[in-house]
Amino acid sequence: MTEVTDSEAPPAGPPWIQPEIQQGIAWRDGDIVVSVPLKSGTTWTMNIVHQIVSGGRSDFRDIYEEVPWIEFLGSPEHSHRDVIDRVAAMPADARRAFKTHSPPPAVPFQEAGSGNDVKYVVIFRNPEEAFVSFRPFLDKHSDEWFGLWGMPREALCRPDFPSFYSDVIDANGMQGAVFGFLAAWWPLRNEPNVMFLHYADMKKDHEGSVRKIAEFLGEEPTDAQWEEILEYTSFPWMKQNESKFEAHTAGKVSILKSGAMIRQGEVGKAKADGMTDEISQHLRDVGSQICPDADAVK
């Protein structure tokens, strides 16, 4: 039996992300948890899982209606109970999938054979790439969204990556959002109900990765469905249909400006987005204290 430990308290995030909500979820057999740290392929993986489970569908309105974010409040008036009740009201005759940026124990881990059959698709990305992608993503949050929460834009946004790393990431201990995530999931990577994938490997082999996830989930699409699944999970199709991935239904007001979710996500391009050798070294030094297993952080 693998023990789940709380190796590092998660860093405080923005007020609309409240991981403790997840403790109230009543899990069902067949549930799928897409657990991915910030800017590490979350939206892509949500869509991959949705397309596999649905057999390839292009007629959905918003991926956040299909794969709810179970630690997210759409406005300050919303309560934890609102999220929990919405999840409980999802149809019992369809397999459910959920998004989280949390690792265990913030998202409860159901060990295989211990009760409900819950599967976890876990993705990790090069930390430098994740953090440089985080800055433009925050910049794309709307003024209306910041205003709704009474948060000044300057609390999370900076004009360049070095100041963003210093003033937002390092000042708030946000390295733990990536390295703490890895430290929590790494000991569970060989559990039979956990699939642990690296974002770079998914980018190198789109079809192979999607087929691997389908096999892990126990889904067997037909040849015709596979054709649609692979098309609808491709970067060109998702970019062409970007409005389906921008969380239009998730908040009381528009959360994001257009173009926030579907970026190129290129591997090995962190320096082009502002990463420096000095910042990278500091990031890795801090990260090694949070996740000291050298085999985990590559």
Compact summary:
The chain is an alpha/beta fold.
Which characteristics define this entry?
single chain, 298 residues, alpha/beta, Rossmann fold, four-stranded parallel sheet
Describe the fold and architecture:
With 298 residues, the chain is an alpha/beta fold. It has one domain: Rossmann fold (3-Layer(aba) Sandwich), CATH 3.40.50.300. The chain is 38% helix and 6% strand. It has twelve helices and four strands; from the N terminus they run E-H-H-H-E-E-H-H-H-H-E-H-H-H-H-H. The protein has helices at residues 42-54, 63-66, 80-88, 127-139, 143-148, 161-170, 176-185, 199-204, 206-217, 223-232, 235-240, 277-290, and strands spanning 32-35, 97-100, 119-124, 194-198. A four-stranded parallel sheet has the order 2-1-3-4, with helices on both faces. The longest helix has 14 residues, at 277-290. 39% of the residues are buried. The model is unreliable at 1-10 (pLDDT under 50).
Helix-and-strand structural type: alpha/beta
DSSP helix count?
12
Our measurement of the CA-to-CA distance between the termini, rounded to an integer number of angstroms, reads: 26 Å
Secondary-structure element series: EHHHEEHHHHEHHHHH
Shape estimate: globular
Strand order of the largest sheet: 2-1-3-4
Low-confidence stretches: 1-10
How many extended strands? 4
Chain-averaged pLDDT = 92
Q: And the CATH topology?
A: Rossmann fold
CATH superfamily: P-loop containing nucleotide triphosphate hydrolases
Largest sheet: 4 strands, parallel
Radius of gyration: 18 Å
**DSSP strand (E) fraction?**
5-15%
What is the correct CATH architecture?
A: 3-Layer(aba) Sandwich
Measured as a percent range, the helix fraction is: 25-40%
Number of domains: 1
Look at the structure and give the CATH class.
Alpha Beta
